[in-house]
Design goal:
CATH class of the largest domain: Alpha Beta
Largest sheet: 4 strands, antiparallel
GO molecular function, one term: kinase activity
Pfam family, one: APH
InterPro entries: Aminoglycoside_PTrfase, Kinase-like_dom_sf
Order of helices and strands: EEEHEHEEHEEEEHH
Protein name: Ser/Thr protein kinase RdoA involved in Cpx stress response, MazF antagonist
Keywords: Kinase, Transferase
Number of helices: 5
Number of domains: 2
Strand content: 15-25%
CATH superfamily of the largest domain: Aminoglycoside phosphotransferase (APH), C-terminal lobe
């Protein structure tokens, strides 16, 4: 008997086996699986088909351009997702540890940004520039935040207004980065959307090499974004406290 929702995994073959749960955040149920005897990762969530089509198309594009990302494995009928389930390649590696590792991460993120200029927005999402004028978008609801906090967030995002946009990973923390001697892999694209690339590049040790002013702009905008997208847990309250008063 398959758990509720996981019945769709059979569309990848009758021999599919769930192995063990993996850390996948609060939005998804993520497991290592075996498909045709090969280790892979399966994710079950509540995203719409349009949202999953956007994400899987992005991952296929980045893989074809030579980046290391989880590549969607087609079901038996060729679909890249089915009933909220996505199956992807399993990637090895460990989190970045040294300043050089983080500089390599910055370079990889910049390649993502370069390869996705002009990419359409993820269905239902809003960019930081959009949120200067609207209150909601996917997980963001500015109406739930204190008005003074919203003013601070919008002031931070306004400093990025007018810049070129692209796909941002959205959550390049060490858990979502797998480094080996040969390459940097970015996993967990659940927060990816179209926005200003600086939001991805607030990294340990200023690995992206911003000057002082650019780092301040990016750090304030990033803190505001994380406060808004997670509101109102302890982490989001902490991040909002980092955004300067107007």
């Amino acid at each position: 008997m398959w758990p509720v929702g996981w019945e769709a995994l059979r569309q990848w073959g009758e021999d599919v086996v769930r192995v063990e749960p993996l850390a996948g955040g609060v939005a998804n149920d993520v497991w290592s699986v075996r498909v045709g005897g090969r280790l892979a990762v399966a994710r079950l969530g509540r995203r719409s088909d349009a949202d999953l089509a956007w994400e899987t198309d992005l991952l296929v594009h980045l893989d074809r351009e030579g980046l290391t990302v989880p590549v969607p494995i087609p079901a038996a009928d060729g679909r890249l997702f089915a009933d909220g389930v996505v199956v992807m390649t399993y990637l090895e590696g460990g989190p970045p540890e040294s300043p050089d590792d983080w500089r390599r991460v910055a370079g990889t993120l910049r390649e993502v940004h370069r390869l996705t200029r002009g990419w359409p927005q993820r269905p239902g999402w809003r960019s930081s520039a959009d949120l200067l004028h609207v209150e909601t978008g996917t997980k963001v609801d500015l109406g739930a935040m204190p008005p003074e906090g919203v003013a601070r967030c919008r002031a931070a995002w306004a400093r990025l207004a007018g810049r070129e946009t692209c796909v941002v990973h959205g959550d390049p923390n060490p858990r979502n980065i797998l480094v080996t001697a040969a390459r940097v892999a970015l996993i967990d694209w659940d927060e990816s959307h179209v926005d200003v690339p600086d939001l991805d590049l607030v990294l340990p040790g200023n690995a992206a090499g911003f000057d002082d002013d650019a780092l301040d702009v990016a750090a304030q905008a990033s803190a505001a974004w994380e406060a808004a997208v997670c509101w109102d847990d302890d982490y989001s309250v902490k991040r909002l406290a980092e955004v300067r008063p107007v």
